[in-house]
Amino acid sequence: MQDIDLLLHGRWVIPVEPDEQVLEHHCIAVNDGRILALLPSARAAQHYRAETELHLDHHALIPGLINAHTHTPMNLLRGLADDLPMMEWLHEHIWPAEQRWVNEEFVHDGGLLAMAEMLRGGITCFNDMYFFPEVTARAAAHLGMRACVGLIAIDFPTVYAGDADEYLAKGLALHDSYRNDPLIRTAFAPHAPYSVSDAPLQRIQTLADELDIPVHMHVHETADEVGQGLQQNGERPLARLDRLGLLSPALVGVHMTQLDDDEIARLAETGSHVVHCPESNLKLASGFCPAARLVAAGVNVALGTDGAASNNDLDLFSEMRTAALLGKAVSNDATALPAHTVLRMATLNGARALGLGAETGSLETGKWADITAVDLATLESQPVYHPVSQLVYAAGRHQVSDVWVAGRHLLKDRVLTGLDSDELLDNAARWQAHLAEP
Ligand SMILES: CSC[C@H]1O[C@@H](n2cnc3c(O)ncnc32)[C@H](O)[C@@H]1O
Ligand SMILES: [Zn+2]
C-alpha cells in the first residue's frame, strides 16, 4: 500500500498515448505532481491510499490541452478590429493600438485574463508570442500554469525593444532566469519572415541550436505574404527559411496555409512542426492549412487559437471541431482528420512541438499530472457511444469541470482556485475604457 497525493477516478480515461485507447472506469494515481499509474478503479484500493480521492463518474479525463500558438495579452484587444483582411487588420489596427497601449501592466492584465479563459477551457499549457514576455512568464509561474514564452524579435522598434540586439539580449536574460523552472520554458519567437531579416534569423538559429529551444514563427500565413516574399527575395519565404537553416526539428511554424507538395515533403524531411490555427485563418480569410496532407506526410501538426483579436476566443474545443470539419472539407474526404487525430493534435502534438513530449501531452506514467476533466453527463452530450467523438464534435469548453497542472487543482468545479474573477473583470473593464479613449 502506497500513500499518494491524489487519486482521480474517471468514467473514461483517454490517455492519447497509446493512440485511440479509451479506458473505462479507470483512475489516475498522482504523486509529487507526476502520474504514477493508470489502473482500473476497482483495483486502486489494493495499491494506493490517497490524501485526496475524487470520483468523476460522468467525466472523461484527458491530457490537459495545449494551445500551441497564442498571444495572451491580446485578450484585451478582443473585438477591437473585426471583419478585416489579415494585413490590413495587423498594419492599420493592431500594430498602432499596440504601440499606443501595450506596457507591462497591459501584458499582465491581458495575460491573466487569457490564462483564466484557457484554464476554464481545459488548457493547461500555452505557447506565447508577445511583448514583455517576462511579465507573462512571471504571471504563469505564479498561477501554476505551464507555458512556453516567446523570446520575440522583429525588425522595427516597438514599446518593448529598439533593435535586434536589444530583443535578443532581453530574450536571453529571460531564458537564463527560467533555465531550471518546472513550468516555464522559452522559445525564440521571430515574428514572421516578412518582419525579420536574414541576419537576426541566422543568429536566432545559432542560439536555438546552442540552447536547444524551439523557434516559434508565423510562416506562410497568407498568399500575399508568399507573393511579397517572391517579389522581394526571388524565393518563397519557406525556401528562404530553408536556405538560412531554419527548417529543423526546432521550427514551430504557425499557420502554413500556403504549401505545395515539395514544401510539405521538405517540412517532413527536416522534422519541422506546424501549428494549425483554423479559426484565426478562417476569420482573417488567410487561407486553409493542408493539415490532413501534412499529417499524412508525417509532419507533427499541433493546434493553436492565435490571439483573441483574430479568433475571438481561446477555445481549443471549438478549434478541434473546426480543424476536423475543415480538414474533411478541404481534402474532400470525410475520413480525413478523425476525432482521435485532432485530440492528439490538441495535446501530445503540441507538447512535441514545444520539446515537451516527454513531460506532458498524454496521460502516461512519469509525465506531469496535467489533466482536464470533461463532464459528459449533460443532455447535449447524450448518448455517449464514442467519448472521443463527443469531445471533438459535440462537447464545449463549458463542460470542463476541473483542471490540474502538475497535480495542482487550478480549476475546481469550474472555479479558478488561483485567480480572483472579479478582479479580472474589473481590469478588463478598465482597459476597455482606456482603449475607447480618442
Ligand atoms: C512580436 S509580438 C507578436 C506580434 O504578432 C502580432 N500578431 C498577432 N496575431 C498575428 C497573426 O495572425 N499574424 C501575424 N502577426 C500577428 C501581434 O499583434 C504582435 O504584434
Ligand atoms: Zn499569431
From TrEMBL:
Keywords: Hydrolase, Metal-binding, Zinc. It catalyses: S-adenosyl-L-homocysteine + H2O + H(+) = S-inosyl-L-homocysteine + NH4(+); S-methyl-5'-thioadenosine + H2O + H(+) = S-methyl-5'-thioinosine + NH4(+). GO terms for molecular function: 5'-methylthioadenosine deaminase activity; metal ion binding; S-adenosylhomocysteine deaminase activity. InterPro entries: Amidohydro-rel (IPR006680), Deaminase_MtaD/DadD (IPR023512), Metal-dep_hydrolase_composite (IPR011059), Metal_Hydrolase (IPR032466), MTA/SAH_deaminase (IPR050287). Substrate binds at E98, H191, E221, D306. Its EC number is 3.5.4.28, 3.5.4.31. Its cofactor is Zn(2+). It comes from the Bacteria. Catalyzes the deamination of 5-methylthioadenosine and S-adenosyl-L-homocysteine into 5-methylthioinosine and S-inosyl-L-homocysteine, respectively. Is also able to deaminate adenosine. This is 5-methylthioadenosine/S-adenosylhomocysteine deaminase. It comes from Thiohalobacter thiocyanaticus. The gene is mtaD.
